[in-house]
Amino acid sequence: MDKFRFLTAGESHGRCLTAIIEGMPAGVAIDPEFINAELARRQQGYGRGSRMKIETDIVEIASGVRFGKTLGSPITLVIKNNDFENWEKIMSIDPKDFTDEKSFTAYRPGHADYAGSVKYGHVDLRNVLERSSARKTAIETAVGAVAKLFLKEFGIEGKSNILQIGNLTENFQAEIDRAKEAGDTLGGKFEVIYENLPAGLGSYVHWDRALDGKLARALMSIPAVKAVEIGENPLGTDGSRYHDEMYSENGKIIRKTNHAGGIEGGMTNGEPLVIRAVMKPIPTMKTPLKTVDSADLTETSAHFERSDVCAAEACAVVAEARIACVLADEILLKFGGDNPEEIKLWQKTKI
Ligand code: EPS
């Protein structure tokens, strides 16, 4: 991300989650209620765990916005963790407060615990859990909501749909109830669709400018996402059916299909962007998996505190946010400009 940049910070049970966004032009309308509505969407979905009953994620905008419009300066976002009041001592920055209450050493297979402890030399796996937790996707959703408000200035909007939970393409709730009863978890598949994109975002000239590559990276780095697919699954389809034929109508090029999902040659082609992703089942499980204790290498059961049974609906909202950030960056890369009026000049051209 070259022009729309951001950094996030914050632990799952720390004081707060924070982001600084840099590169947002001036004059973009920012409605905190829209950001909060996106945060609420991320907290919902059938199968979420008890942490969501504690949190009501609300954004505080601490810089970069005045009287409802961006200033062009860095935007600071903060989301308070309500649960921090129960964890203040455990998450203290002061060595005098040391406690091993809430420490754990039984790796959760499938989570970051083992590789994270090897990498950073943490003995207490809590030190890995706190940042590897999907809790950080709350602040990413807030950043994505700011990107969505920027895209809205140009009529670009996104949405998502759940396609599959576990093995099922309908009756998701019964499947989630079954997994919950068994102390198990479920993954899922979802799609994200963005409409009204101009043709020519991304590029074919170099691998790191290809938009499909940037989108895949943005989605694959969401915790638990294991596969990304743009457009229709091309396996088992002849080229004559797969590719979207072109027609001319009233001086405009039109397509009757969109199997390519709006991307050709690493660039948007003006059709809706359709991107699908698969989330694996959450690895923090009530009926724990077999594992090894890092302290003495004895076989034991994996750590369990609390978890979601299925977070695919939340993951889809996070994916919308990540894609919004990539698209905001691409609009700025292609059209530049320091305020929406300058950027909108492209809409007067025939792209
Ligand atoms: C999450 C907050 C976490 C988990 C979940 C996602 O809160 P806690 O660990 O306090 O219950 O509910 O994260 C995971 C299951 C995980 O393994 O990372 C959130 O805000 O989305």
Describe this protein's structure.
Helices cover about 30% and strands about 25% of the residues. Strand 11 and strand 12 (about 250-255) form a beta hairpin. A four-stranded antiparallel sheet has the order 1-2-7-4, covered by helices on one side. The chain has eleven helices and 17 strands. It has helices spanning about 30-45, 50-55, 85, 115-120, 125-130, 135-150, 170-180, 210-220, 240, 310-335, 340-345, and strands at about 5-10, 15-20, 25-30, 60-65, 65, 70, 75-80, 155-165, 190-195, 225-230, 245-250, 250-255, 265, 265-270, 275-280, 290, 300. The chain has about 350 residues and is α+β, with helices and mostly antiparallel strands. The longest helix has 24 residues, at about 310-335. The chain has one domain: Chorismate synthase, AroC fold (4-Layer Sandwich). The structure holds ligand EPS. Ligand EPS binds near residues 49, 137, 138, 307 and 308. Ligand EPS binds near residues 49, 133, 137 and 306.
